[in-house]
Amino acid sequence: MRLLFAAVIAAAAISPVQAADTPQQASMKSCAATWKTMSAADKAKTKYTDYMGTCMKAPAPAASMAITAKPAAPAGSMAMTAKPAATAATSMKMAAPAGGGSAKCKDGTTVTYKNRQGTCSGHGGVATWL
To answer: Which of 47, 55, 92, 94 is the most buried (most CB within 10 A)?
Structure first.
């Protein structure tokens, strides 16, 4: 009896505990599964990390929907069926003009920049790009 009890305790200590997926983990798994079902032509149009970043930012219900494979688009078509639509957050990430530019900060300061990243970081953020 003691041997059986010791075996049960040892088995419980050795076996890994499976925790429930968090919403973020479930979303990540869903996005990864969608990527796997995309055609090679669609995958060539974007990087995996860019796709995952956009997919993970999608609203929760869209990320947790059941995934269904869609037929591949015709060879001449440019439609990308599995890539999520751009959101306002991703459309703000425009490249800076070649020589830089200027921006009006939220505190009223006007600054010049060589690249947009970090512009107005000490002034409450960018109000408008000039």
So the answer is: 55
Rounded Cα distance, 112 and 59, in Å: 35
Q: At residue 100, what is the residue type?
A: G
Contact 110, 88 (CB under 8 A): no
pTM over 0.90: no
Contact 55, 90 (CB under 8 A): no
Quick: pLDDT tens for 17-41.
566 678 888 888 888 899 899 888 8
| Nearest partner of 52 among 31, 30, 72, 34, judged by Cα | 31
